[in-house]
Amino acid sequence: MISNYASIPQLRLDKYLYLMRLYVRDSFQYLRYHDWEAKLVERWIEVMEDGEKGRGEDGKEEVDRWLAPLSPGDGKVPDGVRYHVCDVWMDELVHVVGEDELEDLEKKDLGVMLMAPIRRLEREGRTKILRGRAREVLKDERIKGWGLQHKEKLGDDSKGEDEWAGFED
Fold this sequence. Notes:
two-stranded antiparallel sheet; 169 residues; 7 helices; single chain; mainly alpha
């Protein structure tokens, strides 16, 4: 779906975006069903950030099996996919666990682990807009106590110099 994102007709785009939302929700439900097992959560984060790598049919050549939706530097993944996943991330997590159980995730050290892909986008995202979207997710009121903002100032964008600022007057 990511590789064909640019060719999706605009009238059908809402359906694809809804499908991505459901994937994020179902992933959180699956992890919750398995009691947030740490190895399973780590593997899922790996899939979301880096994709699945494996051997080709000939057994020699290494091939990507799919493009990871939250890969910060992969130019093949459209930013629209990353923006949408950032937009639905917290909503779907809260939908699955409920606002009351968010504190339990933090106590189990799962909160920081679940937000790792968003933190990585905030640090390593290809564009200033993408880093800003990730920053907005990390500033969500529902996760203020998770310690996600303790070391870096989220209002600071150190990668801003690499983008064109316009003409000086």
